[in-house]
């Protein structure tokens, strides 16, 4: 089996594209999952809270 450089580059680019699309989809699903809303709301408010005053 002889694999030339162009075939290997095409496979690597395609695999990288589909891998990043899958990671992006997983992140979007995680961020939009209803049970995670309280975590994100708490994180958004924690920047505004001042503990020392």
Characterization of this structure:
By secondary structure, the chain is mostly helical. It has a domain at 25-53. 72% of the residues lie in helices and 0% in strands. The protein contains two helices and no strands. The chain has helices at 5-32, 37-46. It starts with a helix and ends in a 7-residue tail after the last helix.
The count of β-strands is: 0
Question: What is the structural class?
Answer: mainly alpha
Give the mean pLDDT. Answer: 88
Determine the number of helices (DSSP H or I, runs of at least 4 residues): 2
- Quaternary organisation: single chain
Radius of gyration: 21 Å
Percentage of residues in helical conformation:
over 70%
SSE series: HH
Q: Quote the beta fraction.
A: under 5%
Transmembrane segments: 15-33
Protein name: Cbb3-type cytochrome c oxidase subunit 3
Keywords: Membrane, Transmembrane, Transmembrane helix
InterPro entries: Cbb3-typ_cyt_oxidase_comp
Please write out the topology.
Blueprint: H1 5-32, H2 37-46
Pfam families: FixQ
InterPro entries: Cbb3-typ_cyt_oxidase_comp
Protein name: Cbb3-type cytochrome c oxidase subunit 3
In short:
With about 55 residues, this protein is an all-alpha fold. It is built from 2 helices and no strands.
Keywords:
53 residues, mainly alpha, 2 helices, 72% helix, transmembrane
């Amino acid at each position: 089996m002889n694999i030339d450089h162009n075939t290997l580059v095409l496979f690597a680019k395609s695999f990288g594209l589909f891998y990043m699309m899958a990671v992006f989809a997983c992140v979007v699903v995680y961020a939009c999952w209803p049970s995670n809303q309280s975590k994100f709301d708490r994180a958004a408010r924690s920047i505004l809270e001042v503990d020392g005053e």
